[in-house]
Amino acid sequence: MGHGYSVFDTGIGRCGIVWSDAGVVGVQLPEAREIETRRRLFQRYPQAREMRPPLNVEIAIEGIAALLRGQPGDLADIALDMDGIPAFSRRVYEFTRTISWGETRTCGEIAAALKASGASHSVAQAIGKNPFMLIVPCHRVLATDGAADKISANGGSISKRRLLSIEGTLSPGSKTLFDVLLPVAPPRPQT
What we know:
Elements: E1 4-10, E2 13-20, E3 23-28, H1 34-44, E4 49-50, H2 55-68, H3 87-96, E5 105-106, H4 107-113, H5 120-128, E6 141-142, H6 160-167, H7 177-181
Parallel strand pairs: 1-4, 5-6
Antiparallel strand pairs: 1-2, 2-3
Helix pairs in contact: 3-5, 4-5
């Protein structure tokens, strides 16, 4: 089998997930409109075909949806297809998967934990290229100064601050704590 993909509903919009026989290849958080989410998927994974997800991917979808509802979702055992991912990035992603719900780490802390002190910039680059949004919870990794402003390319229109606020995580070092304390209100129903 080649790559399959599925688009699914969550509390923040329609997300996408791509997989291979080896595991999840990528996760796309929602763009402003579903067509934009699909376009991003097609750009990154042109060989993927829409199909019914296998069990491992169904479990990932359920876990992602739970996280985006503000509930801890268990994504620790989801198989990832890291073919083509550089060795250092793999180490960063494996460590990042150990960061628990409601916790954050800085790029410098991860570099030190990987015994690569001084490599916080390399950690930030790996986090910025994370294709496995939420399964590898890069939103829990803050810049060395504690800022929670940036998110990876698969982040769609969702900010790291919003993902942290869904988890109830306040980042005192964030330059934009205001956004965490006052999340965006849901749209009002039209009459």
